[in-house]
Amino acid sequence: MLLRSIVIILILNNLCGAYKILLVFPVPGRSHAILGEGYVRHLLNDGHEVTYIAPIPMKNSHPKLRQIDVSTNFELMPTDKIFNIEIVLKNQLNLKDFKFLLYATSDFANGTINHPNVQRLIQDPSEHFDVVIAEWLYSELYAGFSSVFNCPLIWSSSMEPHSLVLDLIDEALNPAYNPHHLSDILQPFSFFDRINELWTLIDTKIFKWRLRHRENSMFNIAFESSVTKRGRKLPSFNEVRYNGSLMLGNSHIASGAAVRLPRNYVPIGGYHINEIIDPLPSNLQNLMDDAKNGLIYFSMGSMLLSRNIPIEMKRGLLKVFSKLNQTVLWKFEEELPDLPKNVHIVTWAPQLGILAHPNCKLFITHGGLLSILEAVHFGVPVIGVPMYGDQHLNVNRVVDKGFGKRVDLNSEIATQMDIAIKEVLNEPRFVQKVKEYSLIFHDRLNSPGKVLSYWVSHVIKTNGAPHLRSPAKLVPWYQKLYLDLAFLILVTLYISFKILIKLLTVILSFRSRLNTIKMKLL
Ligand SMILES: *[C@@H]1O[C@H](CO)[C@@H](O)[C@H](O)[C@H]1NC(C)=O
Ligand SMILES: *[C@@H]1O[C@H](CO)[C@@H](O)[C@H](O)[C@H]1NC(C)=O
């Protein structure tokens, strides 16, 4: 009887395809947590059991959700200190400096995999998972979880597809026409841009290669004992880091570029946006309903604090806002003195509800990809004030696509903002364009959440989806660039040249000897 019910349960489980999934999204920041929680939501909806390594544990509990608390990661990566507007303004935050970025992120990943709660999970031989989904943020150390649990690995990439992530499953993009994700340029590239982009790619590769001993030992120290405990041998870091089955990208063509992608890259941009938007709190709802001339929503995201904007810039912006007919809603962490009548401060903003309101006419944002995707989703034009990371590229693309303007954070910001706001609000082309891109964003075979669910179970069902793997990963780089052929041609040319010279000298000396003999004979 017991046996029969066990068999039935097993069969049912298989039929419904309920799996055990480990989600590794340990970056301590609201926007990264939103990405992780999006997976949690979709996977729980599908009936899977989810274990979520969470920097900001979710409040709502669910019988099939288990959270591994890594909130102490805020100490490892103090995002409030790193991502600070003052530091950005003083140019002290140079995230384009890869060496800093790669060092800091591998240290952070190392801290996470050695976190006591994480170690407790992987050291327990009774734990088992069908797949590991890990957010890639400049380090591949989390690939080790797939070795521990002997299951496929799915990468989640938070940005538009770029060379560093594509290199893990296929190969880097051609730098002649694909800007690096932290670059501040768009096509067409000048000659020097092209050289610069090529050099950035090579420099990054070399630096990653130089970090290999450091990362190898981090990998071995964190994962070796838990793999050995399970009676297996830990593969090398290099084998595992390039062994991802799939990459799910928080990207969409409506906000990115139409780059070519390998078969195991699947864009799911927009999956984090809940289909049912929570109603606005009544004070906000009233404010938005009453904004007869429209409302401008201003938020620098969850990592940056607007209060760190220098006081003279704040004053300048407030002066510009005070002259507008529109209502301005500014996500700001403290009360501002002498607030104009049409400007309202909120310390917390339900962004989706605000953007969804028909009176929201303009979104002033730092250009984080989640914000851009949400603006496209709801069809709201954008003014981007890029600060760090991929925000420059995101905002440049918005400008290029024609549904927004860019304003830089410097002493000119108030004047530039004034011009940009008037242009975007008065010229209908911005709204037209954002509606076009919104249509592109929504016109899909399936919702991004459904796509996410489908591919996760596809990878599990097909034991790591080996059929999707790019053959590019099997070929060494010098063969892809035909450097062996180039070498062969050079060597052949060199040898032929040498032989030719030899022949010529022989012929010449023969002729001169002939001549001397002739002369002697004469
Ligand atoms: C690579 O992934 C496949 C599919 O998940 C798995 O069977 C294989 O053991 C992995 N290899 C290594 C070295 O991790
Ligand atoms: C504000 O509205 C008034 C009256 O509707 C109009 O005359 C004025 O040009 C508007 N100002 C701006 C900055 O749009």
Kindly describe this structure.
It contains 22 helices and 13 strands. The chain is of the alpha/beta class. Strand 4, helix 8 and strand 5 (153-157) form a beta-alpha-beta unit. The mean pLDDT is 93. The radius of gyration is 29 Å and the shape is globular. It starts with a helix and ends with a helix. It has 3 domains: 14-273 and 447-474, Glycogen Phosphorylase B (Rossmann fold), CATH 3.40.50.2000; 282-442, 3-Layer(aba) Sandwich (Rossmann fold), CATH 3.40.50.2000; 480-521. Helix 2 (30-45) packs across helix 20, helix 14 packs parallel to helix 18 (413-426) and helix 16 crosses helix 19. A 7-stranded parallel β-sheet has the order 3-2-1-4-5-6-7, with helices on both faces. Strands 10-9-8-11-12-13 form a 6-stranded parallel β-sheet, with helices on both faces. The longest helix has 39 residues, at 483-521. The structure holds 2-acetamido-2-deoxy-beta-D-glucopyranose (2 copies). The site of one 2-acetamido-2-deoxy-beta-D-glucopyranose (NAG) has 8 residues, from helix 12.
Task: Tell me the layout of helices and strands.
Layout: H1 2-16, E1 20-24, H2 30-45, E2 49-54, E3 65-69, H3 73-76, H4 79-82, H5 85-89, H6 98-113, H7 116-123, E4 131-136, H8 144-148, E5 153-157, H9 163-169, H10 191-210, H11 212-229, H12 237-241, E6 246-249, E7 265-267, H13 282-290, E8 295-299, H14 311-322, E9 327-331, E10 343-346, H15 351-356, E11 360-365, H16 369-378, E12 382-384, H17 391-401, E13 404-406, H18 413-426, H19 428-442, H20 448-461, H21 477-480, H22 483-521
Parallel strand pairs: 1-2, 1-4, 2-3, 4-5, 5-6, 6-7, 8-9, 8-11, 9-10, 11-12, 12-13
Helix pairs in contact: 2-20, 14-18, 16-19
